[in-house]
Design goal:
This protein is α/β, with parallel strands linked by helices. The protein has one domain: SPOUT methyltransferase, trefoil knot domain (Alpha/beta knot, 3-Layer(aba) Sandwich), CATH 3.40.1280. About 35% of the residues lie in helices and about 25% in strands. The chain has six helices and eight strands, in the order E-H-E-H-E-H-E-H-E-H-E-H-E-E. The strands form two sheets. A six-stranded parallel sheet has the order 3-2-1-5-4-6. Helix 1 packs parallel to helix 2.
Amino acid sequence: MNETEEVAVLRLGHRPGRDNRMTTHVGLTARALGADRIVIAGTASKSKSTIEDITSRFGGPFSVELTDRYRQLLQEWPGIVVHLTMYGLPIQDVEASVRADFESKPVLIVVGAEKVPFDVYERAEYNVGVTNQPHSEVAGLAVFLDRLFEGRELDREWEHATHRVVPKATGKLVEPADEE
């Protein structure tokens, strides 16, 4: 990955009251697995504040935006658009091409909730299926980001964290982060 490039996630179809938890998990997965930001189409202020809270405690950088103009973002995106859909080409068949494009262009990953409008399929350079079976959009995003970064996102350094998770074989421990 070229360090100047960006990976953004566009969450489409957020249904308030129904998708709050799923949208939050899409955002947290995007953050944890290497994306730079998420743009949520719709009214999702609760998800936005939860993701921002986690980012402020466990580090970033990562930003969260709400929009009611997702089509404008899609049309003006300066790089490649990848739409995650079970109807797309198998990830294992297109991941090398996506990575090659990502070396010089930012990537916008579209993750839907409800039925995605057909113009998204048409705008995307890649319609990608992480299996062609129904499953969670969170799982699809996680697998896609891991393939995009080839596992490097797992060693990411976090900035400005106030807390950190201490890896343990059993139990759990969260402690204040040492700011240097």
